[in-house]
């Protein structure tokens, strides 16, 4: 079994992905290189970092050819040494077989605080968010929102007021278009939590009478935070509104959802620069 295949088994078993796990152990590039086949084996140092997050992880699975992803009582030093003495590869089980074998263990695995004191991404108070500052947003557009580029986005673990399962982003407010001089204003440099709206739901009415403030990554207009004041579902058009009262500089305008890479609902203000 290749290192890349072992990594896929590991990610599937622990219900995570390359980007999230790489961020937790600060080894994103190493995991990326293993996934792409650039690195052919797991180093001992990398395995030890992984075990800090998942103490039950069986290092022999990654370093050698042990079929057990997690440790069990029947794994002994004798079995460990046999791998060093016998280089003949074993017939590896399929991913489905491994998952079935460990299903009971996985079902009993409770969501908890990780050993390194970082909260598990599945808890109700914490969320892993992708960081999309202005420069990164421009990079996403110039790379046509390539999946590998998206996968390598920096992430951050933040505490949230209300947990949700959809992808999340930490995004910037840029410029003065959403500054109307009132307390609700979005200021240049403000950072917000945005909840992704899956593309499959863009055909639903996005305006719900409540939160109509959205982060949008558009192929031509770039990234922006705007209020959606109209949604033509039939023609797939959104009418975007800026709060700034200078309509010569900030007029309302329409965009087509087919030209959007991200539409996400703004959830809360995360930080604001002190003036």
Automatic annotation (TrEMBL):
Protein name, entry field: Peptidase S24/S26A/S26B/S26C domain-containing protein
């Amino acid at each position: 079994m290749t290192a890349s295949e072992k990594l896929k088994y590991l990610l599937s078993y622990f219900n995570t992905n390359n980007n999230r796990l790489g961020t937790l152990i600060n080894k994103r590039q190493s995991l990326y290189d293993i996934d792409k086949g650039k690195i052919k084996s797991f180093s001992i140092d990398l395995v030890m970092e992984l075990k800090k997050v998942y103490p039950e992880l069986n290092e022999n699975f990654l370093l050698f050819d042990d079929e057990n992803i997690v440790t069990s009582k029947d794994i002994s030093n004798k079995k460990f040494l046999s791998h060093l003495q016998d280089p003949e590869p074993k017939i590896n089980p399929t991913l489905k077989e491994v998952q079935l074998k460990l299903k009971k263990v996985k079902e009993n695995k409770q969501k908890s605080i990780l050993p390194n004191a970082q909260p598990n991404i599945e808890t109700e108070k914490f969320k892993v968010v992708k960081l999309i500052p202005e420069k990164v947003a421009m990079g996403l557009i110039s790379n046509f929102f390539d999946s590998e580029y998206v996968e390598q986005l920096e992430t951050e673990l933040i505490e949230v007021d209300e947990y949700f399962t959809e992808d999340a982003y930490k995004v910037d407010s840029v410029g003065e278009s959403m500054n109307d001089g009132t307390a609700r204003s979005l200021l240049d440099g403000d950072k917000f939590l945005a909840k992704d709206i899956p593309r499959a739901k863009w055909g639903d009415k996005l305006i719900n009478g409540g939160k109509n403030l959205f982060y949008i990554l558009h192929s031509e207009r770039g990234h922006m935070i705007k209020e959606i004041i109209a949604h033509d579902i039939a023609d797939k058009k959104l009418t975007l509104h800026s709060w700034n009262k200078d309509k010569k500089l900030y007029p309302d305008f329409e965009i087509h959802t087919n030209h959007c890479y991200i539409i996400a609902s703004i959830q809360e203000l995360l930080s604001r620069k002190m003036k």
